[in-house]
Amino acid sequence: MFHIETNSLYQLFNQVIRLHFQRVHSTLEPLGLYPGQPPVLFVLAHKGGLKQRELADHLHIQPATLTVMLKRMEASGYITRRPDPMDLRVSRVFLTEEGKELCLQVRKAFANMEQEYFGALTPEDKEKMREGLTLVRDRLLKDGGEEVGGKPFDCE
Predict the structure, then answer these.
(1) Of 27, 73, 86, 91, which sits 20 to 30 A from 20 (CA to CA)?
(2) How many CA within 13 A on the CB side of residue 138?
(3) pLDDT band at 18, cuts 50/70/90?
(4) What is the rounded distance in angstroms from the CA atom of residue 110 to the CA atom of residue 100?
């Protein structure tokens, strides 16, 4: 039987991921967002007016998944879809003023989480952690993972 040590890096990394996901969910819930929606805000803050297909491709998600997200975000007043002036069969997605404000709130919440998580680390410890996580990320990408596009946590 396979057993992972309680103090293994794998186990610790898994615990951090789960705790982070719980924190993100509890932070976003009062804002009326689900954890998958902030990347939509961040991408649209930089590249507003994308076609839904372009946005799905940029986020590396299925168009059907994006459609569900956009319906919720549109109902909440955070995004609007407008017909493409060159092709009325195609809609383009834009942040509303409420969406832009929400993007800033989410960015601030994520910055607060980063400070909470890493504020006690020395600059040297942060750099070592950044190097280690970059190596892990690059290994995962090399083995077939996909990096989500867009500038993370930026609304401007």
Answers:
(1) 73
(2) 6
(3) very high
(4) 15
Any alpha helices (H) in 76-151, and if so which ranges?
97-118, 123-142
Q: Residue 152: phi, psi to the nearest 5? A: -70, 135
Q: In angstroms, rounded to a whole number, what is the distance separating the alpha carbons of residues 24 and 10?
A: 21
- Based on its alpha-carbon atoms, the radius of gyration of the chain, rounded to whole angstroms, reads 18
Verdict on whether the full-model pTM lies above 0.90: no
Write out pLDDT tens, residues 123-137. 999 999 999 999 999
Residue type at position 26: S
Q: Is 99 exposed, middle or buried (0-12, 13-18, 19+ CB in 10 A)?
A: buried
Question: Is the CB of residue 78 less than 8 Å from the CB of residue 85?
Answer: no
